[in-house]
Every structure is written in structure tokens, then in C-alpha cells.
Write a structure and sequence with these properties.
Number of strands: 14
Number of helices: 10
CATH superfamily: Aldolase class I
Number of domains: 1
CATH class: Alpha Beta
Shape: globular
Bound molecules: flavin mononucleotide
Order of helices and strands: EEEHHEEEHEHEHEHEEEHEHEHH
Radius of gyration: 18 Å
Length: 291
């Protein structure tokens, strides 16, 4: 079950999706038992930004019949406070740490990459590119040119693996190719799909942020297709996610070309879902290899 992802040894192929598992709160709730039973083989932090962000006004969630729309808006403590307070606590989890970062310019991304990569607790960085570049007005991850130029700007800043988290809101294969050309060591997908919901009591949008991102079971067929397309287009490893709630779902993404998979929305229903998915996946892979 062990896999090597960008030179990082993982005990099994199941990670968490950024922003879907609060390991510090979970440690407070479950104590050291969490460490003995940690559900993921590496931990991906929630996306951090250079300065603290309050996130979007409530309501922030809307459940659909088979998915979840979130309009959380990346609330976080900001880079300095993350490095000082959160990172030492995350380092106690005992698994490799991947820190997710998002900036709105090359200069902001450069500050994040330099600050995070300098810390020995960090094994790799994930660049969340589902954000506008204030200099061009374009969503970085929706443009191959923007993505390649961002990578060219930050690649020289660290030898640590850089993973680019792709958006499903455009066809991701050309963006994945551009990320790899710019020097990305891996790509991960899918992030959430733009979506909205109407207030049942009136015609206005329900979410405080007006719109949000859809995740969960509803997006799994889209994730499967996009992972397959991206894996066929690049030679760097692919981390697949989107609606995974069983080992069979994880196996489908691996069969589509993913090296590792991530569990996201399912962890809100069952915080130990990652562990269950990993053990179901082990049975699934054994069954497939014996056929
Ligand atoms: C509540 C919530 C918060 C999220 N926060 C982040 C985030 O901070 N950074 C990020 O790159 N993706 C974030 N995501 C996207 C997930 O990491 C994942 O890409 C997406 O939800 C698809 O996987 P899933 O269907 O298994 O949830 C978030 C998703 C949810 C549901």
C-alpha cells in the first residue's frame, strides 16, 4: 500500500483534501488516539494566505441531495501566525506535511513559498491557484499561461516539491501541462465546482458569499473524467479527489491514473473516513491483483 509521491514515502495512498479536516481541532477532540489512528498518510493544511482572512459571511454551507456547496472563503490566521502557532502542532501528527498556499500576485506567492518551504517540518507545498491574479484579473488556474508563469516565478525559490491544485471549472489538462512545464512536481484535482443555492424563504442567494463551490458525491463522475484526462496528459504524479467515500471510489481514481487520492467532504460526515477508505482500498487492490 505504500507509495512514493514526489520523493515522499507514504504508508498508503490516502491523503485529505485541503480545508476538509481540521487536524488541530481533531487532536483537541480525540487526544493522542488521533495520532495512533491518524486517517491520512500525509496531512494537507487548509489554504493559508499572506495576511489573516475572516472568510465569507454566514451562511457558509448548503447541502444538496448528493453534495455540499461551501462558501467558506478561506478564513485563516495568515502566514506568520500559521508558521508560529499551527505548524508546530501539525508537525506532531507524525505524517509528512503538505502546506497549501494562495496569493493574489507572484510577489504574494513568492512570500508564501519562501516562508513555508524554509520550515523543516514541511515536506511539500500545494499551490491553490483558484484565485485571481490582481495584476491580470485572470483566475490563475483557469489559464495555462498564468499557471506556467506563476510556476516559473516560484520554482527557483525552493527545491521542495510543488503541487498545483487544479480547478475543474475549466478543462484542466492544458493547465496541468502548463504547470508541469513551469516546474510543478505534481498536480492535484479536483477543487470544487462553482455553484450557488437559493434561499428557500425568498429568491435571494442563500450563501453569504453569494456563491460557493460544490463537492462530495455529486462531483465524483467529473473528478473521474478530469483525473483520467490529466493523467494522460502529464508525466508528473496526479493526486485525485472529488467525492471519494469508499475504497472502490479511490481505486477508480488510481485506475484512472492517480498516484494518490484524497478524501474531502466525506470527512465531515465521518472524521475517520480516510482510514476506512485506505483499508477498503487495500482490499480492492488485492482483489484486482488476484483477478
Ligand atoms: C468546506 C470545504 C473547505 C475547503 N477548503 C479548501 C481549501 O482551503 N483549499 C483547497 O485547495 N481546497 C479546499 N476545498 C476543496 C477540497 O480540498 C477538495 O478539492 C474538494 O472538496 C473535492 O473533494 P471532495 O468532493 O472529496 O470534498 C474545500 C472543500 C470543502 C468542502
Amino acid at each position: 500500500m505504500s507509495v512514493r509521491l514526489c520523493g515522499i514515502e507514504l504508508a498508503h495512498p490516502v491523503l485529505n483534501g485541503s480545508g476538509t479536516f481540521d487536524a488541530i481541532a481533531a487532536r483537541r477532540a480525540f487526544g493522542d488516539e488521533l495520532l495512533a489512528q491518524f486517517p491520512f498518510s500525509a496531512f494537507v493544511s487548509k489554504t493559508i494566505t499572506p495576511e489573516p482572512r475572516a472568510g465569507n459571511p454566514p451562511p457558509r454551507l448548503w447541502e444538496t441531495p448528493s453534495g455540499l456547496i461551501n462558501s467558506i472563503g478561506l478564513p485563516n490566521r495568515g502566514l506568520e501566525s500559521f508558521l508560529e502557532s499551527d505548524l508546530p502542532q501539525l508537525a506532531e501528527l507524525g505524517v509528512p506535511l503538505i502546506v497549501s498556499v494562495m496569493g493574489t500576485s507572484h510577489a504574494e506567492f513568492a512570500r508564501l513559498v519562501t516562508g513555508v518551504a524554509a520550515r523543516e517540518e514541511v515536506s511539500a507545498l500545494e499551490l491553490n491557484v483558484s484565485c485571481p491574479n490582481v495584476e491580470s484579473g485572470l483566475i490563475v488556474g483557469e489559464s495555462p499561461g498564468e499557471t506556467c508563469s506563476l510556476l516559473e516565478a516560484v520554482r527557483p525559490l525552493t527545491p521542495k516539491p510543488l503541487i498545483v491544485k487544479l480547478t475543474p471549472n475549466v478543462s484542466p489538462a492544458p493547465v496541468a501541462v502548463a504547470a508541469a512545464e513551469g516546474g510543478a512536481d505534481a498536480v492535484s484535482l479536483i477543487n470544487t465546482l462553482r455553484a450557488t443555492a437559493t434561499d428557500p424563504g425568498g429568491g435571494r442567494p442563500w450563501l453569504g458569499g453569494g456563491r460557493g463551490g460544490l463537492s462530495g458525491a455529486a462531483v465524483r463522475p467529473i473528478a473521474l473524467l478530469q483525473v483520467r484526462e490529466v493523467a494522460a496528459a502529464v508525466t508528473v504524479p496526479v493526486i485525485g479527489m472529488g467525492g471519494v467515500s469508499t475504497g472502490a471510489h479511490a481505486g477508480d481514481l488510481i485506475e484512472a491514473g492517480a498516484t494518490a487520492v484524497a478524501v474531502g467532504t466525506e470527512s465531515f460526515r465521518d472524521p475517520m473516513a480516510g482510514r476506512r477508505v485506505a483499508s477498503e482500498l487495500e482490499r480492492e487492490l488485492r482483489r484486482l491483483s488476484s483477478v
